[in-house]
Amino acid sequence: MNLNNINNIGSQSDKKNVAERYFDETYIDDHFLVLSYKNEEDRPVNLRREVHNDCLQFHFSLKGSSKFIFNEGTYTLNILEENSLLLYNPQRSLPINIEINPNSWIVSVLISIKKFHALFSQEADYISFLNEDNRDKKYYKDGEISPSMAIVLNQLINYNLNHSIKHLYFKGKAYEILSLYFNRNEEADIEQCPFLVDETNVIKLRKAKDIIISQMAEPPSLQELADDIGLSLKKLKEGFKQIYGNTVFGFLVDYKMEVARKMLESGDDNVNEVGLKVGYSTSSHFIAAFKKKYGTTPKKYISSLN
After folding, report:
1. Which of 139, 136, 153, 39 is nearest to 94 (CA)?
2. Are the C-beta atoms of residues 301 and 158 closer than 8 Å to each other?
């Protein structure tokens, strides 16, 4: 956990300007919930919820920033935009007490350690708090939200499909979030990925990612990319998927959609302009790609924000 984000709690006068609200809660299964909240107000909003001490808490800040308040107000922990926070303490309860700043969005997943362990029992060697030596110890971890995770989280917080399928939709997305969170990505276990033993290859693949991001509107071909980083086409394809959990262009599409979503939110460009800036020559192709990822058109997405 980044201790630089821990601060002393604010004064009583600060608290008077904070509105009390409640999470939007979606039941997934026994001891498995998704919480979300969009603060569209011009002042902070405070949300509280009791959480049993056998529960893992995954918190994701999609937009703006929020502040967790612990230990009856003795200290706080900030969670910034596009960052996540994992909390687990089997020794004591960690009730949620969070102050969400104006124009900030947060999604949280709560799941019991028993249910979680059943999902990941075969992966205990690389999920450290599942190791036998650590299962009764508290665990904190902060990190960045990947583009693929951001897409799923935005699909949850901007849900606009028929209410009758909401439970099924959220259930699938909740499991997808957990899968993406523990996808090894850049922290892949080198011992289990022989190709990555050579650190030089890892550096080259990260360079490949940087190249396609910087040239997302007109990306090089796979062969050109392989030549640029000095790897064979086969090693580029295999290595990129091992590190980032996706093909080169699958990763790029996810990234472009995330950039497009943020541009649409800013309101500085219309749909056609956003599509062109992320590399779509026609608006119809951009709209189709956006809808495939987010389940809605760019125009409807903008409307949902208002």
Report:
1. 139
2. yes
